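Late entry, written up from scratch paper. The run itself happened at the end of the previous shift, but nothing got recorded in the book at the time, so transcribing now.
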Amino acid sequence: MKTIKTISKLTMLFAFVAFANTLMAGGNLKVNILPLSSEKAVVAITTVDAVNLQISIENEKGEKVYYKETDSDNKDYRKVFDFSNLEKGDYKLSVFTNGLTTERNFTIDSENIEVGKEKSLIEPYFSFKDGVLKMSYLNFPEEKVSLNFYTNNDLVYSKEIGNKFNVVEGFDLSKLEKGSYSVVLSTLSNSYSYDLDLK
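Output as recorded:
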């Protein structure tokens, strides 16, 4: 099998447009947890456009203790959550819409609810045209990023990108054998896959 060639310089237009679009999307979803007591809190979610929201809460073992999908008819979602049936401990509230996830960690103890900082995760942008794969990703968590290419579950190419914030990569795939490939961008906490066919 022939090798993948890394393109060292992508056009500045691609880098700027992908970066700007992704950065603007990061401001489209805001999530707040406002404690009312040691057992209740208001979850307030605001979006720029009326969109469908997927809301989930996981415990520290990664088990889902709550899931709801909302209707797409408002930009402002508010609900009082009663956490009295949950065990004391650490939880993560995640809200997903249109390729964007915003998370808030919170801790429930016997006296109050402590809320962590808001963290945004944006899916990477992939584009494949004329044998060239372009990819951009804003690494908000600043985790180590790796990129792997697979065909028929076999690893074809791997690249360690590191923990830089603005990841922009390009690959000339024109020399690869024809077939189906999966490109997987992985971080410590997430994995994103992009499928393509070389004809």
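Residues 9-17, 22-26 have pLDDT under 50 and may be disordered.
(Scratch paper discarded after transcription.)
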